[in-house]
Design a protein that fits this description.
Elements (H helix, E strand, L loop, with lengths): L3 H10 L4 H13 L1 H17 L9 H4 L2 H11 L1 H20 L3 H22 L2 H11 L17 H11 L3 H14 L6 H12 L3 H12 L9 H12 L2 H11 L8 H11 L1
Helix pairs in contact: 1-3, 2-3, 6-7, 9-10, 10-11, 11-12, 11-13, 12-13, 13-14, 14-15
């Protein structure tokens, strides 16, 4: 009887005859161990083949963890790791006729890649970093006193302070739609509210508007984008934006950007 790894490889590579394939599939249906090993190797193929990430599986892509891992596997460091692993696999495959050793090499390689990805995305560490760098007390209040106070803006900030972030974003959106002279601080509050709702694209859009505001506040946009990527645990984009910030010592949060880069490297 063939070893499981060899049979599985023959099955997935399409080298089995029709009768062998039928017999194998019948065994899979009745052998939980064989079924589990088949699933494992299929999963490994998904990672190593040059395909779209979980192509067509839109529900899986909607999870935060899938987004994080997708970002990691598309990053330069993951590409380098995968290239090195594939070179070893190709060498072992050509030099050895024993498919069992090739399978073991694949399994070891995927274990390394998974270990690295888990190391990169330590959820608690990223959450703690975000909490340590988001300082709402640094943002001036939008609330003003007197007859000229903008009630929409005041209401939006009050909702934000009550952590009613969904209602706050709706109120900020109404303010942005109605007014022509917009307080740029409102983009910061609105963007952070979207971060707290895990609506990262919407948060980035607010900070893009901040960057385009041509005000003193616009210089803060890159730092707040960095906070989006930190909360999102998107290491590749976080590193890119932090490296932009540290290009100039006069950039907003230059020192903090240096510290954060050291933390995530």
């Amino acid at each position: 009887m063939k070893d499981y790894p060899i049979e599985i490889d023959d099955y997935l590579s399409g080298t089995m005859s029709a009768s062998e394939k039928k017999a194998f599939e019948e065994r899979v249906a009745n052998d939980s161990v064989l079924a589990e090993e088949l699933k494992l190797q299929k999963d490994m193929q998904t990672i190593y083949e040059d395909q779209e990430w979980l192509q067509g599986d839109t529900e899986a892509l909607q999870t935060e963890k899938a987004t994080q891992l997708k970002s990691f596997y598309e990053s330069k460091e993951a590409t380098n790791i995968k290239s090195a692993i594939q070179e070893v696999i190709a060498e072992n495959r050509s030099e050895s006729k024993n498919k069992t050793f090739w399978f073991i090499g694949i399994a070891a390689s995927i274990a390394v890649l998974i270990t690295v990805s888990l190391f990169v995305f330590k959820d608690n560490n990223y959450d703690e970093l975000y909490a340590s760098y988001i300082h709402m007390d640094e943002i001036p209040s939008l609330v003003t006193r007197g007859e000229d106070a903008n009630k929409l803006l005041e209401n939006a900030q009050l909702l934000f302070e009550d952590k009613k972030y969904k209602e706050a974003t709706e109120s900020f959106a109404a303010y942005h739609a109605k007014e022509t002279a917009i307080d740029p601080l409102s983009y910061i509050y609105s963007g952070i509210a979207y971060i707290e709702l895990n609506k990262f694209d919407e948060a980035i859009a607010q900070f893009e508007l901040l960057a385009d505001s041509n005000t003193l506040q616009s210089k803060k946009a890159n730092w707040y984008k960095a906070l989006v990527f930190l909360k999102q645990k998107n290491k590749a984009k976080l590193k890119d934006i932090l490296q932009m910030i540290i290009l100039n010592k006069n950039n907003y949060k230059y020192k903090e950007a240096q510290e954060l880069l050291e933390e995530i490297n």
